[in-house]
Amino acid sequence: MRVVLVGAGGMGKAWLATILADPAVELAGVVDLDLDVARSALADAGVPDLPVGTDAVELARQTGADAVVNVTVPQAHHPVTTAALFAGYPVLGEKPVAPTVAQALSLVAASEASGKPFVVSQSRRYNAHAELFQAQARALGDLGSLATEFFKAPHFGGFREEMDHVLLVDMAIHQFDLARFLLEAEPVSVYCEEFNPPWSWYAGAASAAAVFEMSSGARYTFTGSWCAPGLETSWNGAWRLSGAAGSATWDGDHDPVVEGAQAGPAADPGEGIAGSLAAFTRFLADGTPLWGEVHDNVLSLAMVEAAVESAATGARVRLDDVLDRAHAQAVADERRDDVLAVLKGWGSARAALRR
Fold first, then answer.
1. What is the value of pTM for the model shown?
2. Residue 195: beta bridge partners?
3. What is the pLDDT of residue 352?
4. Which pLDDT score is estimated for 264?
5. Is 43 part of a structural domain of the chain?
6. In the chain, which stretches have pLDDT less than 70?
7. Is 47 contained in some domain?
8. What is the pLDDT, as a whole number, of residue 355?
9. Is residue 319 situated within a structural domain?
């Protein structure tokens, strides 16, 4: 599969190396608004002669690419992905699917209208320990609660330290997405509080606590901080799961620890973005089901948007309300008639996401 990579910044370089290392994928070229950045990334990777450009569709056509990998900043996810889909290219994109749920629903409709798939890389889902934890969750029968503790103290500098809702918006989507995967259930509502400890070096709230009601009746609890020095958790978080047949814990970096019903071995899904890329390749080759297809992924972003709304209002927020408002906004904002027709054809956003 020949791919054009869009975005040659820090994350783009990580994807570039991953693409070059995958024998099932060939890098056709790199797109960046700054051509010198694209050339430098290719030179650093040892492939300086590959073509570069500033337009993803144009370079994909010139190079005979089969698909586009979109690693641009979140604000560019919607226009870059939409253009690629309607030019006939499947797209694999970085999280979040888009900056807002309204834009995410527009991308769902664009995928339907164009007939081309769009997959979001939730890279922390691709983890052999997480796969085993999900198998263990199934072995424990009816599930009552899942909890994540996430405590880190990174000094990023730059835009993250100035963001509003920095923990919820920039990080928690990974844990929220994993919770959906582990519980095999969808969010119904959330109550969330966020705050900033007095020693925080972030302008926005860097700590949060949220409780989600899930469609299975289970509760998912997230507690975390990005300004918690000492005894830090894994970047994947520390997890505890309680079910009818026992309990399991997972430190985020090793196999889960179980007391109760034991699961058998689980498949290795690959690691991080390499796992995402391999799953995308298999999906295009033979339709192998994968996690993160856009219809599915929107609900992970909706969990973030609902948690932010709850923290701002102090009220419990229903996910259906978030989706309905986003749907109305997507209809109001849409400028493509074919995408608008799909959006208007949905009975509800929630129904459109069940495929």
1. 0.95
2. 207
3. 87
4. 84
5. no
6. 355
7. no
8. 55
9. no
